[in-house]
């Protein structure tokens, strides 16, 4: 029988095989730390080496991306696609364009994506990709040249039945358009289902833009409701002011919560009357401006605090929606001191392990990203479904499907945690529920 010591030994071997990939190590540790009761209940998982197999990507692709800037100079970036696990369906996961992208970051994102996609209940495997390209301050022409060069290499590795990328940080509808145009040019095929996050007029899905933020709001509302609370009249703080943060704020307010603070890399704004989400959208999405503009244009008595973390604002609910490891132990202590009751990750792994441990020890409801932010990939899978049937759904129907999926994810995490003797532990519930579905599929296929 596999013991906890065996799992620690195995975890250490996995980490040793991938040196200097800190984010990947963090994701692996989070999974391993919750799976001992699963392996004890299912010894056939250990016999088939499922943990070893699931931690090793099926394929890792690293490639050069040369492109020409507006001054005529050749620039070189590095592109990645990690196709991690296809037990449940074609690889599915976004592309991230940001200077922080490394193989370790892409592997962490792809590893998390396996379990997140599994939790949706939809037929999609896990993968992730990106490049260390910074779209910030680049012209449309430069971004187009980069995307076309990136897809010139990537196109040979993807397909609607093989690997279906989407957007992530730095990759929105504009970038997906350039990528899809180059794929179409190279293959001479109009395969709508090869990329998701497309524009509505050429195969995109309604609610995809809103999906990750809406899904996070639905999840935290379900989490609070399951423990005798709700969002009504709760003060909510959100980090970030990009796509996920904006739509999380919008849906939180529709569900009765009051978002009183949000942030960007320059600092945060505090508006005790409730953030004007439409004004944030205008500043950040239309004007591509800084959040410091908000107090100057708001009708409320809002303030901008430069260079500080938003987590110092007292709140009932905290939603980290910016990037990985943004909420550390110091921030967690601040939130706990100020009587936070729930935290849900709108971004991928935005809380450090130390912060997560503090929340668990304090009995704070904690929704991990693989559950709380699964709405984005779930709606991407629904976009694939519409593309396959040459169909287009209404906004209302699409949102109802998203809400149903997020409600089911919450119920699955909640019930799995109860089943394994860890009531209220959404980290264990999400990890175990996500892992077991993939494990059963891998067992069915034999050793491949």
TrEMBL record:
- Pfam annotation, one family: ELFV_dehydrog_N
CDD domains, per the entry: NAD_bind_2_Glu_DH (cd05313)
The GO terms this record gives for MF are:
glutamate dehydrogenase (NADP+) activity; nucleotide binding
Reaction(s) catalysed (UniProt annotation): L-glutamate + NADP(+) + H2O = 2-oxoglutarate + NH4(+) + NADPH + H(+)
Q: Does the keyword NADP apply?
A: no
Q: Which NCBIfam families match?
A: PRK09414.1
What is the official name of this protein in its record? Glutamate dehydrogenase
Species of origin:
Methylohalomonas lacus
Lineage runs: Bacteria, Pseudomonadati, Pseudomonadota, Gammaproteobacteria, Methylohalomonadales
């Amino acid at each position: 029988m596999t013991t906890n010591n065996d799992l620690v030994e195995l975890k250490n071997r996995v980490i040793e095989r991938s040196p200097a990939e800190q984010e990947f190590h963090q994701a692996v540790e989070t999974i391993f730390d919750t799976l001992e009761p699963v392996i004890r209940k299912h010894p056939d998982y250990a016999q088939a080496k499922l943990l070893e197999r699931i931690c090793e990507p099926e394929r890792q692709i690293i490639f050069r991306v040369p492109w020409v800037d507006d001054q005529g100079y050749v620039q070189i970036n590095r592109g990645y696609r990690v196709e991690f696990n296809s037990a449940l369906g074609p690889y599915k996961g976004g592309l991230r364009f940001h200077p922080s992208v490394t193989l370790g970051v892409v592997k962490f994102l792809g590893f998390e994506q396996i379990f997140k996609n599994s939790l949706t209940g939809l037929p999609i495997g896990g993968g992730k990709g990106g490049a260390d390209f910074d779209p910030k301050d680049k012209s449309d022409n430069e971004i187009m040249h980069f995307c076309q060069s990136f897809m010139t290499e990537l196109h040979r590795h993807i397909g609607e039945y093989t690997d279906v990328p989407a957007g992530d940080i730095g990759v929105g509808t504009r970038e997906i358009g350039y990528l899809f145009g180059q794929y179409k040019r190279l293959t001479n095929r109009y395969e709508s289902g090869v990329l998701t996050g497309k524009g509505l007029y050429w195969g995109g899905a309604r609610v995809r833009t809103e999906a990750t933020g809406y899904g996070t709001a639905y999840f935290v509302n379900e989490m609070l409701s399951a423990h005798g609370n709700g969002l009504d009249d709760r003060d909510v703080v959100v980090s970030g002011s990009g796509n996920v943060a904006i739509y999380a704020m919008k849906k939180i307010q529709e569900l009765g919560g009051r978002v009183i603070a949000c942030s960007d890399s320059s600092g945060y704004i505090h508006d005790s009357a409730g953030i004007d989400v439409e004004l944030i959208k205008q500043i950040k999405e239309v004007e591509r401006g800084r959040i410091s503009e908000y107090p100057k244009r708001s009708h409320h008595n809002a303030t901008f605090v430069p260079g500080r973390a938003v987590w110092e604002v007292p709140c009932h609910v905290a939603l980290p929606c910016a990037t990985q490891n943004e909420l550390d132990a110091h921030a967690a202590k601040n939130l706990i001191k100020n009587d936070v009751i729930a935290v849900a990750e709108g971004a991928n792994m935005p809380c450090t392990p130390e912060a997560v441990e503090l929340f668990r020890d304090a009995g704070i409801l904690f929704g991990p990203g693989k559950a709380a932010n699964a709405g984005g990939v779930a709606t991407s899978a629904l976009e694939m479904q519409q593309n396959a049937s040459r169909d287009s759904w209404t906004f209302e129907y699409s949102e109802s499907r998203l809400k149903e999926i997020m409600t089911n994810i919450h119920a699955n995490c909640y019930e799995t945690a109860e089943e394994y003797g860890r009531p209220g532990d959404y980290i264990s519930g999400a990890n175990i529920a996500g892992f077991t579905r993939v494990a059963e599929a891998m067992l069915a296929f034999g050793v491949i």
